[in-house]
Design a protein that fits this description.
The protein is an all-alpha fold. The chain is built from eleven helices and no strands.
Length: 197
Amino acid sequence: MEYNDYELLYLAQDKNEEAIEILNNKYSPLINSRCNYYYQKSDKKGFDFNDLYQEALIGFNEAINSYNQDNNALFYTFALTVIDNKIVSFLKKNNTVKDRLYNEALSYDELEDTILNETISYDSNPLNKTMNEEAVLEFYNELKSVLTDKEMKILNMKIEGLSNIEIMESLGIDSKAIYNAMHRIKQKAKSFMEKGE
């Protein structure tokens, strides 16, 4: 049996997982198109497409939970507005110097270069190179102490260069779980960095 948007929204607001999944699949092209639009317009420094996608998903779920049919707006229009606001808010926040430094310091490429290959720079001075390696490994070990087993597995798979699809297949989870885990990892890493300031 097929449901219209209003029936699906009623069920989704009542925490019906099947209805939420149907809405997510139905509006996936909208979410992707808004992410692509803002990604192309942005300077792409300090974040990647997945960061925008995560924000768009959060915005879409907020739209589901807060939509009120009595406001005389189509859900499509309402969801579009909430998604756009969420992405724009993220881009503005990300554009501050502190956040850009933080995000750039935690990029997957940097983690791969620094942790897996045990190098943070191509400094020719062996003493500087050793000090950088030690700092990165110390930070990585501190981070490990606050990550859950699942977060640790996802982080290590990302560092090893596995795609989201490969991680999903290996761990039996969906893409949203990966984005949420990476968001939590970044938040935990950020709190460590702030303690060290």
